[in-house]
Inverse folding.
């Protein structure tokens, strides 16, 4: 929810955003630790992947919301692997270059792996005779 407010002492107007925080959400890490779900950290990673790309902030917010909803549906927990795969599939739909940048870091791809991912993204073009 978006609210416009005004300071009672200086009369400066500002906007606040409120959202419902029903339950604490956790990410289950690969080593078994539980870490609190952090929207800001997740959004930051997606923004870094989409840096200097024509990706709208709303598209990133929508992806973060889908991942958070998956954690809620999972009883308040989601695995780090599931978060990563949801990021990859979401970025693949939003922007293929951002997808490649995220995949290269997330999956620790080398040059040949990046080339294979790139080949899977491009349609098979057959030269005309």
């Amino acid at each position: 929810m978006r609210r416009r407010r005004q300071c009672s002492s200086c009369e400066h107007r500002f906007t606040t955003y409120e959202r419902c925080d029903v339950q604490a959400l956790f990410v289950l890490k690969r080593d078994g630790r539980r870490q609190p779900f952090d929207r800001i950290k997740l959004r930051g990673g997606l923004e870094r992947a989409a840096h200097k790309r024509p990706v709208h902030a709303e598209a990133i917010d929508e992806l973060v919301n889908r991942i958070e909803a998956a954690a809620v549906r999972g009883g308040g927990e989601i695995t780090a692997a599931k978060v990563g795969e949801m990021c990859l599939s979401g970025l693949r739909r939003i922007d293929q270059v951002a997808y490649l940048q995220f995949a290269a870091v997330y999956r620790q791809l080398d040059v040949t792996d990046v080339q294979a991912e790139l080949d899977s993204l491009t349609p098979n073009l057959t030269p005309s005779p």
User: Anything to note?
Assistant: DSSP finds five helices and five strands in the chain. The two ends are 59 Å apart (CA to CA). Confidence is low (pLDDT under 50) at residues 124-129. The longest strand covers residues 2-6.
